Amino acid sequence: MVLQDLGRRLNQAIQSVNGQTTIDEPALDAVLKSVCAALLESDVNVLLVKRCRDRVKQLVLPQLEEMQAKQGQGGDAMQGNKAKQLIHKAIYDELVALVDPGDSAPPAFNPVKGKSQVIMMVGLQGAGKTTTCTKLATHYQRRGLKVALVCADTFRAGAFDQLKQNAVRAKVPFFGSLITLDFLASGNRTLMHNAHMMYSYTETDPVSISLQGVQKFRAERFDVIIVDTSGRHRQESELFDEMVQIQEGIEPDMTVLVLDGAIGQAAQDQARAFKDASNFGAIIVTKLDGHAKGGGAISAVAATNTPIIFIGTGEHLHDLEKFSPQPFISKMLG
Ligand code: GDP
C-alpha cells in the first residue's frame, strides 16, 4: 500500500465508528485492528504497530468506559462523536510519535553562514544519495549559504559524472575523481589519460579524495560542504570501514542516512547497521512521491532514535521537502 493510501485507510478505520452512539471495547478493538492492518501493509515494523495499538487502547479505553457510564445515567447524547474524536486524536498522536524521536534525540544540525560545515551522506547504492546531495545543496544555496559538493564515491562507475552533471545543473562547485576502482581494474588507459588531463585528480582512495575536497572548500570559505560517499549494494564490511575512515578524516558536523522510502521491512536493520557504524544524526527518506510504502523507512526513526529532516518527493532538484512530524501526519490523514 502506498503512503497516500495509508492515510485513506486509517481514516476509513476511524470513520467506521460513525453513527454509533456507544463505542465499547469490541468496537475500539475493531478500529484498532483495521488501523494495525493498514500500518502493517505499509511496512511499518510489527513491534511498532503493536506498541501503537497497545498505547491507544490503554489511553482510550478507560475514557470510553467513563463515557459509557455517564451515558447510562442519561449523559451526553453526543458520546459517539466524542469517542470518535478521542480515538482519532490518540491515533494521530501515536503516528506522530512514530516519526518523531522527540527530545530524546539530539536536534538535527542546522548549518549557518560564516563558517565551514561538513555534511556527510551515507546509504546504500540506489537509495538516492547522489540526487539528494544536489537537492540539499540547492536547498542551502537558496537560503543564501555558499555550498560545494565532494564526490568520495570511487567505487561506482559514473558516480562522479552523475554528481558533476547534477552539480553543474544546480551551479554548485564540485570536487572528485573521475577514475573509479572498477575503471582501473578494466585497464583502460585512454580514459585515464583523458581524465588526468581534464581533472588532474587521479586519486582513487575515497578517504584522500574527501579530505582533499573538504580542505579545498574550507580554504575557499564555503559554508556547507556536502560529501557524497559510496553506497555499494549491500551492507558490506568494506563499505562500513570506508565510511568510518572518511568520517574520522573529515569530521563531519552532521552525517545523514539516505533511505529509500520503498525499502520495506528491511529498513530497520539497515538503519541500525548504519547507525552502529556511522552514528548518523539525521535521516532523509527518498522516493515518497512514487509507489513507496514509506512505513519501513518511517520505522527507522524509532529503530535509531534519529529525526527525519527532509523527504525526497521526485527526481528533480527542487523535489525535497522539509520534514516535520505533525504536518506530515496531518497531511497523510487529510
Ligand atoms: P545513489 O546510488 O544512492 O547515489 O542513488 P541516486 O541518487 O543515483 O538515485 C537512484 C535513483 O533514484 C535515480 O534514478 C534517481 O533519480 C532516483 N531518485 C532519487 N531520489 C528520488 C526521489 O525522491 N523520488 C524519485 N521518484 N526518484 C528519486
Written account of the structure:
The protein is an alpha/beta fold and 334 residues long. The protein contains 13 helices and 8 strands. Strands 3-2-4-1-5-6-7-8 form an 8-stranded mixed beta sheet, sandwiched between helices. α11 (267-278) links the parallel β5 (254-260) and β6. The two termini are 17 Å apart. Residues 188-200 have low confidence and may be disordered. It binds guanosine-5'-diphosphate. The site of guanosine-5'-diphosphate has 19 residues, from α5.
Structural features:
334 residues, alpha/beta, 54% helix, elongated, binds guanosine-5'-diphosphate, hydrolase, endoplasmic reticulum signal peptide binding, signal-recognition-particle GTPase, 7S RNA binding, EC 3.6.5.4
Layout of helices and strands:
Elements: H1 3-15, H2 25-41, H3 46-72, H4 79-99, E1 117-122, H5 129-142, E2 147-151, H6 159-170, E3 174-176, H7 181-186, H8 189-199, H9 206-219, E4 224-228, H10 237-250, E5 254-260, H11 267-278, E6 282-286, H12 295-304, E7 308-312, E8 320-322, H13 325-333
Parallel strand pairs: 1-4, 1-5, 2-3, 2-4, 5-6, 6-7
Antiparallel strand pairs: 7-8
The structure holds guanosine-5'-diphosphate.
